[in-house]
Design goal:
With 597 residues, the chain is α+β, with helices and mostly antiparallel strands. It is 26% helix and 37% strand. It folds into four domains: 106 residues, Immunoglobulin-like (Sandwich); 133 residues, Sandwich (Immunoglobulin-like); 111 residues, Immunoglobulin-like, CATH 2.60.40; 112 residues, Four Helix Bundle (Hemerythrin (Met), subunit A), CATH 1.20.120. Strands 11, 12, 14, 15 and 16 form a five-stranded antiparallel beta sheet that branches. Strands 21, 23, 24, 25 and 26 form a five-stranded antiparallel beta sheet that branches. Helix 4 packs antiparallel against helix 5. The chain is elongated.
């Protein structure tokens, strides 16, 4: 009996081990990457269609289909993606589908397709297809998915494939829909991030269907998305694809009780495909020394609100660039004004609209100038240089010299200095030139100095007693500070912010290092004051939090403008003067925030 029980336990153990081994093997096989080719049929008539599916269980890159010798491609490639979670396990499937028609009778081979998945190249197995004479009944009725595949196409139209650095490139995403079906809704699955581009979306307020053609056939199309890109790096740049899930109604051959056609709803995933453009660098030949990165077609002017005024009155000087191009991505030139004029920091002004051809409008710096003395002050000519991609040349525009005349007011001290030898006159004393000297000082003799019993004696005697409560108060204060963990962290972060600002000051003249240090200093300052982590930083969050803290809107805008300058410094050239202004602005903004927070 004991032997029988032992055998039964041994058999159960073996079965359990075999089951576990089989389950582990199944899991291993489920994780295996597969890439297969499936044919709708291996034998078809000359008047029939062949559907070829290339399916993978993990997404890959660089898909290369075969040549399809002996067939014409009438549709494809269309993409379909399926992803689901079952019992905590993810199931993924992506399929490239082609619809082929044979060109002759015979035996043909559908050669292997290739794709790269996780750095490895996978290939399908070639398959044979036999094409016979035409048949009486061609392919069976198309499925709803077949009709949707043939009737939906998402296309990305790129305005320029070979632009210059910082030249506008427009991408328009169009969805082509066959008149045989109707689209009910759609949702984006994967929006492109446009790395290495400065991007600006052009909102599509109304989706109006228009008539057009796709591959020579009549279609309706709808513009889903427009975006203007300004490349920030030369060379080969990829525009990531846009993927959508489209919900459609497909007609069937069935009809309802009243004779109306019955429609079936389905959804399909379509992708615009990745596009690559070749960005040309700006030519070095003929590049002006004052070129600040402006690319487009611009006009430049310098104007003043008045040319005659009195001392202590103010006037406005405007440095303005108008036209079409990358208006937000370059620095305006600065006027060189006489040192005797008091000049305030400029107020930046912009009025820019973004169209499908790029940005158009104007940007300007408004300077407030206050003269202190009477005289004539010239505002020298200023030059502005830009690159015109239409002509492929640089152009420099010089403003006209402006003369400012101060009519009334004090004369500068330097203007009243005359030569010692000129206009000598005899000075006649009047007897009043020494009237300020007091000839009766009321002096009294100093008595014998006595220390004991004097005021100084009692002060020194009582001083140690007065120091005792001061020492007790200081000790308690230091103890409270030591127990204030949050306060200590804030002080530490404040020191860190000052450290980064000091690093930024040392890096003046080195654009990238300066703005990296400046941005770190600003972030650490907010981290100390608002008790939020750096990972939570965004301009919108910073604006909302500072507004909740009742910080003035001017100071909030100043802080956001500094962060914007740090971002723009990655793409645009910044002068040493601009860096110095940004550093001083950072110190001023932090000081103002300290007073309010």
């Amino acid at each position: 009996m004991k032997v029988l029980k032992g055998n039964i336990l041994f058999i159960l153990g073996m079965l359990l081990f075999t089951g576990l081994h089989s389950h582990a093997q199944d899991d291993a096989e489920a994780e295996e990457i597969t890439f297969t080719m499936n044919l709708s049929k291996e034998e078809l008539g000359l008047n029939e269609r062949l559907r070829v599916d290339f399916t993978m269980n993990k997404d890959g890159d660089n898909f290369k289909p075969p040549q399809f010798n002996g067939f014409n491609v009438v549709m494809g490639p269309s993409q379909s993606i399926s992803s689901s979670w079952v019992n905590g396990k993810r199931s993924f499937s992506k399929t490239y589908t082609y619809i082929l028609v044979p060109t002759a009778r015979g035996s043909f081979t559908i050669n292997q397709a290739t794709i790269e998945i996780d750095g490895q190249t996978y290939k399908t197995t070639p398959k044979q297809v036999e094409v016979t004479a035409a048949v009486d009944k061609p392919n069976s009725q198309k499925t709803v998915d077949d009709v949707a595949d043939e009737s939906l196409h998402l296309v990305a139209e790129v305005s320029k494939g070979n632009p210059y650095l910082n030249e506008a490139v427009t991408v328009v995403y169009k969805l082509y829909v066959s008149p045989n079906i109707s689209v009910t809704n759609y949702r984006p699955l994967d929006n492109p991030t446009y790395n290495n581009f400065w991007s600006q979306d052009i909102p599509v307020t109304k989706h109006t269907a228009q008539n057009g053609t796709y591959q020579g056939k009549p279609y309706r199309y709808v513009v889903l998305k427009r975006v203007v890109l300004y490349p920030q790096r030369s060379g080969q740049l990829d525009i990531e694809p846009l993927s959508l899930e489209i919900f459609v109604d497909v007609p069937t051959n069935r009809r309802d009780f009243f004779g109306g056609r019955i429609y079936t709803s389905t959804s399909k995933t379509v992708s615009a495909g990745s596009r690559t453009i070749n960005v040309k660098p700006l030519p070095e030949a003929g590049k002006p020394a004052n070129f600040s990165g402006a690319v487009g077609d611009f006009d430049f002017s310098v104007s003043t609100s008045k040319t005659q005024l009195n001392a202590s009155e103010s006037l406005q000087a405007k440095v303005e660039v108008t036209g079409k191009g990358n208006l937000k991505l370059f620095q305006l030139p600065e006027p060189e004004l006489p040192s005797s004029l008091e000049v305030y920091d400029p107020e930046y002004e912009e009025s820019i609209n973004t169209y499908s051809t790029g940005m158009e409008g104007k940007v300007a710096n408004n300077y407030t100038i206050v003269p202190s003395f009477r005289g004539k002050y010239p505002i020298p000519s200023i030059s502005f240089s830009y690159f015109n991609p239409s002509t492929g040349n640089y152009k420099t525009i010089n403003s006209e010299e402006i003369n400012i005349e101060v009519i009334e007011g004090p004369t500068s001290g330097s203007a009243n200095i005359t030569s010692p030898s000129a206009n000598k006159q005899l000075v006649v004393p009047t007897g009043e030139q020494f009237h300020f000297i007091n000839i009766n000082p009321n002096l009294s003799p100093i008595g014998i100095d006595r220390f004991f019993g004097s005021r100084l004696f009692f002060i020194l005697l009582l001083a140690p007693l007065l120091l005792i409560p001061i020492a007790i108060f200081t000790f308690k204060k230091r103890e409270a500070i030591a127990s204030d963990v949050v306060g200590n962290k804030i002080k530490k972060a404040n020191k860190l912010a000052r450290k980064y600002l000091s690093t930024a000051k040392k890096e003046l003249g080195n654009k990238e290092a300066f703005y990296v240090a400046l941005e770190k200093g600003l972030h650490n300052y907010l981290k100390a004051k608002l008790h939020i982590e750096t990972s939570e930083f965004s301009k919108d969050k910073i604006t909302s939090i500072l507004s909740e803290k009742n910080v003035g809107q001017k100071d909030v805008d100043g802080f956001i403008a500094l962060l914007t300058s740090c971002e723009m410094a990655r793409y645009s050239p910044f002068s040493n003067v601009q860096m110095q202004q940004d550093y001083e602005k950072a110190s001023e903004v932090i000081s103002n925030l300290d007073k309010q927070l």
